[in-house]
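Write out the bound-state structure for magnesium ion.
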Amino acid sequence: MILLLGAAGTGKTRTSRMFPPESVLRADDLRALCAGDPGSQQANSAVWDVLESALTIRLRLGLKTVVDATNSAAAHRARLVAAGRTHGAPVVALLLGPGLSVAQQRNAVRPARRRVPADIVAEQYAQVVAAHPHLDKEGFDHIVFAESLPVLGTALERLAAEEEKNQATADVRRVFGDAAADLFDWDGPGGGPYRTGAFAAAGESLAVRWVDDGDPFDHRFEARVSCPTEWCPGPAWTPVRSMADLAAAHRNTPHDETECERCDT
Ligand SMILES: Nc1ncnc2c1ncn2[C@@H]1O[C@H](COP(=O)(O)OP(=O)(O)OP(=O)(O)O)[C@@H](O)[C@H]1O
Ligand SMILES: [Mg+2]
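---
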């Protein structure tokens, strides 16, 4: 069990990217899940209950688990450490090194709803500094500073391996983003000159094709829409370069020029 330890803005969430996302329990994600907003303080005790439940289940299954939370309050730490010890897990404190002024600066430039008040950041910081010399007595087996680990390199290697897995939909991800790729599949090998696929969910689908004529400055996705004429059954194709283009094509109100495959309009 790895507890990140640092005031708001010290870089816990960035550091947590070195671990597989499914192994990270992140207080802000649970706030979003329980209270609709990662910065909400309205459901704090429920958020801690959910975090502790999930942690306990994972520890029981022997799964490596990282807790991305400030963990500056001794009482919270004590409960999590007790859970780790009960399940025989090695308990690691992963401390974030930046000084208070860095945390305050980073926090000050965040969007208002993600900004933690300066006095709270200072209090969290002081709590962590005070706790540091006594963490072994609290039951931590290892006390490590993130700055002593190859955090960025590990994160990049992990993301590179994921990228390789996602290669089949790399073009979709690059143009439309990861969430859009979850709605997309390529068709099997088809007869036409272009590779085709579709965004689909429930009863609807939007056919697209990847138009690559060898010009590196002009390869693009095109979505299938109706022919702009009243009389031709089409199909016509319109370039789609963003989610907004895709949504418009799905509404059959394409933003860009549309060309009909049948009548050449
Ligand atoms: N090593 C770094 N170098 C430069 N900027 C960084 C670094 N780590 C984090 N940051 C910046 O600081 C900001 C805060 O980082 P991060 O979100 O990881 O902090 P946090 O400890 O998770 O904060 P919180 O407790 O509020 O969730 C980020 O938005 C990022 O811009
Ligand atoms: Mg964070």
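---
Residues 167-260 form one domain.
The radius of gyration is 25 Å.
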